[in-house]
Amino acid sequence: MKKLTWKDDLRPVPFLLAFFVAYVLFTIYPIFKGMQMSFFNWTLIEQQEFIGMTHYINVLSDPNFWEAFGNTSLFVLLSTPTMVILALGLALMANLNTRLQTFFRGSFFIPSILSVSVISFVAIFMLQPYTGVVNNLLQAVGLDAEPFWLATPSLAWVSIIAVTLWWTVGFNMILFLTALQGIPEELYEAAEVDGATRQQMFWQITLPQLLPIGRLILLLQVLASFKVFAQILLITDGGPGTTTRPIILYIYEMGFQRYDLGYAAAMSYLLFMVLLVLSVIQLRLGGKEGRML
Amino acid sequence: MSQSVLTTKRDPFRWLKVSIAFLSALAFLFPIVWMFFVSMKPEGTAASSAIDWFLPPYTFSNYVNIIAGSDVFLWIWNSFFVGAVTTLLTLVLTSMAAFAFSKMRFRYRKALYLFFLAGLMVPGEAMIIPLYEIVGSMGLLDTYAGLILPGIAAPLGVIILKSFFDGVPNELIESARLDGCSDFRLYWSIVLPLAKAAVAAVGILTFIGSWNNFLWPYLAIISEALYTLPVGIPMFNSNYSETYILPMTVNAIASLPVIIAFLFFEKQIVKGVSFSGIKG
């Protein structure tokens, strides 16, 4: 091939320029701006003053930060494996060869397209003690207790995770379903010839074939779950007390309710670092399917 | 779909699996169905048991009240407008970039592509503080532009579209070039039409993302006239802590357009989601 000249270099410019400008301005520049802010005493009113690592030192000794970080980690640990297994189960159901296939797929997916605001409000109303439909159903099956779902820390977590699963599992279900439908039919035919049972086919063909997409879903889900925010803000607002407050909610409170943007930026930066490490792990472990770069 | 081994081979537990799937589907739909029933109850209804919500009396007066007396249509319009403009700009920007990466040779192409892909690793949620500061210093807080612009340069779109443009045969491109076809016409009249399905899928995914975006509009908007649906709903609901019925009507009205759109575009939505799982 002939050597590239400056003319070749100029040709893509009109195609790349607009994307480049928007990307640098709203994706790359915030990274540097955030770093700058985290070194300053940056509030909405006060004079901006360079204070070096002070915010970072304060954040790392702030028990609220660690509590929020622990809450977020707890959410990731509890919700992610459940999410992946549930998504797989639903995909297997949606892949059953029946006339109801489209109905199954649609039902599992529809909650994902509803607004988080709708989802959260419906959840709050359903989980009300005495009048909520969940407690009513529990009583209908003979449970006598009257759980205060959103006022008890452990139950608040259960509620948030259940709502999150219901709301978002559809996306992962579709990814599993696509992979299921992409498994070469010959594999099953060959197994059939060898006299394999359905169970053997599932464990030795279906599951191994789904492993790469499953790993990708798991890693993407960990990254996504670390950023949990909206449904918690709307359902419990971090309560009772601060027992369900995730890291982004704490960042939000410091930044936009107490106007300490520098402190909030420092916390954002620490979160960014954690997510970056997780992304790199993903690139390493993701295999061919998970390789983004 | 052709008859697969798994479907022809008799499965003794088939009825059980289908039944479980059916019950699961009902469980997934239950809160939504329930929402619509509650939205039709007369104001001030006190339901002591779950079944009461599903039984008459029903009324449409809540819908009439909400439509006449709230800004729900304004929020729907704002969400639609922001979503449509965001989607249109995203599609133009990402498809042009993807075209350059797929069909042009230039120095540092690979490095630039990697630079764009690296954006996938930048978590928007962790960058809201500096983004707020930047958009604020541009004077765009509390404007449509401030809602739209931060969302338009999405690397995922470039990746998905590039992988589709790569499928357009290079011989086609070369022969068109020999006929004197300009780069822009090549992009607009040859490559883009051939990748229609992928463009539609990316567009739908972008639109859903924007339509449901909560955090950024929640921060960037102060004026009620600019509220999008996800921001308007909680603001409305917080004014009604005593009765749940009117807020539920707002939720139902907000959900109807997306549910109808889903029934129309299910294929494209599913395709879009499955593309988003393909990386690199």
UniProtKB/TrEMBL annotation, chain A:
Limits of the ABC transmembrane type-1 domain: 69-282
Family, similarity comment: Belongs to the binding-protein-dependent transport system permease family.
Record localization: Cell membrane
Sequence intervals crossing the membrane: 12-32, 74-96, 108-128, 148-169, 216-236, 261-283
Top-rank taxon: Bacteria
Record's bilayer topology term: Multi-pass membrane protein
Listed InterPro entries: ABC_transporter_permease, MetI-like, MetI-like_sf
Protein name, entry field: Sugar ABC transporter permease
Record carries keyword Transmembrane: yes
Protein keywords: Cell membrane, Membrane, Transmembrane, Transmembrane helix, Transport
Principal location listed in the UniProt entry: membrane
CDD domains: TM_PBP2
UniProtKB/TrEMBL annotation, chain B:
Record's keyword annotation contains Transmembrane helix: yes
Keyword terms, alphabetized: Cell membrane, Membrane, Transmembrane, Transmembrane helix, Transport
Classification via CDD domains: TM_PBP2 (cd06261)
Membrane disposition: Multi-pass membrane protein
Domain of life: Bacteria
Family: Belongs to the binding-protein-dependent transport system permease family.
Protein name: Sugar ABC transporter permease
Species whose genome carries this gene: Alkalicoccobacillus plakortidis
Top-level taxonomy: Bacteria, Bacillati, Bacillota, Bacilli, Bacillales
